[in-house]
């Protein structure tokens, strides 16, 4: 897939998706319909990512198989090619419920830059450090607080709530860093797809406890 991504950077398939307003430097961003591209490797990756997310949604919401069968996952998806010095600034994805990043190739490690290409997820609880002492300064996860820094390995998938602010620190390797990202919003079967930001949740209220 790495070779194909680099080829598609030069001649991307025709697309009509909107550009991203997120500030980036040294990063190529594909159109936002990547998981719809007619390529067997892309379709295999799309199934891998969306199946894992679907399982997570089912477990965390306590949905039965029958309830999951009523849901449809809609998504935007794209890939990034990051070259040395490239980064993506702080942002979130307010019009989605879940986001994910799949690492195709993390690039060559930078021996003198430990945060090179790191995905940093910020804690939304701005008040949690209002008082610090030895009783709460060194809490282990998941009880601690502060940003979570993730160093990708090839083939790794990270899923997180879309409301979390996150960024990618400058990539200081000598090769390219290749990642695929996606945002998901969910509708019931038969509901219009709509675009993120519009949701009719009446049916969820009918779900028995």
TrEMBL record:
Transmembrane segments: none annotated. InterPro entries: CHP02466, JmjC_dom. This is JmjC domain-containing protein. Residues 31-201 form the JmjC domain. Pfam families: 2OG-FeII_Oxy_5. The lineage of its organism: unclassified sequences, metagenomes, ecological metagenomes.
